[in-house]
Amino acid sequence: MWSILKREVKNYMKKPLFWFGIAIGIFMILQNVSSYLNIHYLTEGEIIVNDDSEMYQDRDIFNGYVPTEKGLQRKMWEEQIQEVLISEFKMDNLGAQSVIDEMKEMDVITACAHLEGYGFYDAYYEYKNMAYHKGSHEEINAYIVEKLEDRTFSYYFSRKFADFAGLFMGFFATVLLSILFIQDMRRTTYELLHTKPVSAGKYLSGKVGGGFVVCLIILVVLNLIFFGICFVSTRSSGFKVCLMDFFLATCFYILPNILMIVSIYSLISLLFKSPLPAVPLLFLYIVYSNMGSRNTEGIYGYYGRPLAIMVRFPGSFFDTAPPPMVLLNQSFLIIASICIIFLSMWIWKRRRVY
Which pLDDT value is given to residue 325? Predict the structure, then answer.
């Protein structure tokens, strides 16, 4: 087992694709998380760069937006609804005000359904659009202080890192591991392996372990690099940065996904005597894992999917939260991966030549 594992790791580390992929990963992840490295306490008179975002998903603390208090959000929303009813639905002031009055005792979801009766179908989007507003220096600094009172800066940053590192590793592992079994599945090699006194457990543990360790090495490199970048970038702000936050986010939100990918490669390779059919299957699996869905209230967003091999954190920086039941899902992924590996061992034994 160990000799097979070490051989696979050495073979991969000799390949240019391994190092080129790490470089691409650093570049891709940095492009997506660099904005969060600009978060800092504002000094008096400091001008906030890029503080004119009109898109809800782009409104975050790094460009000067802070969460709106619920009561104020509802008030701003009703004012916006009234304005739209007048400008786009051609209602007069009295008619628009009567619609707002009808909504006063309704919760937001019920009020949105009520507005659909008037042909207004974007009401919930308008409400979400009011969730953040341009903050003053005092509001921004107070918000940062509040969020960092009990948490380190790296607690939040590591989740954003895990979001984009997990996305990158899903695709890169699919490409990188496609050659893990390809040499062994050639007819002459495959038959020769089955005549050797190596057990199914040792062979597959070595191959799967080798593929997993290769991905683990990549993740360790990415963790150390982005911890260093985060530490240097936030040092002047006095934010606390902890390497363990990065490692924990990686262990919880990325490693079970990688284990699932490599176990699928083992099963498909032995079923079809080629790992290549697993490539399109895994790309479809990634698409499935990354798709949005609707919650119990019918609101579209990213809530995670059963046995998904992707964990996303689409919220604003200080409000990032994993999808519901994500740790349970990650546990199921580990269990499912182990079952797939045992199934692969059974297939290997069935085809063994004595």
Answer: 87
Q: Which amino acid would we find at residue 88?
A: E
Exposed / middle / buried, residue 328 (Cβ in 10 Å: 0-12, 13-18, 19+):
exposed
- Name the 3-class secondary structure at 199: coil
pLDDT confidence tier of residue 354, bands split at 50, 70 and 90: very low
pTM flag (> 0.70): yes
Secondary structure element (H or E) that encloses residue 285, with its range: helix 278-289
Note the pLDDT of residue 194.
54
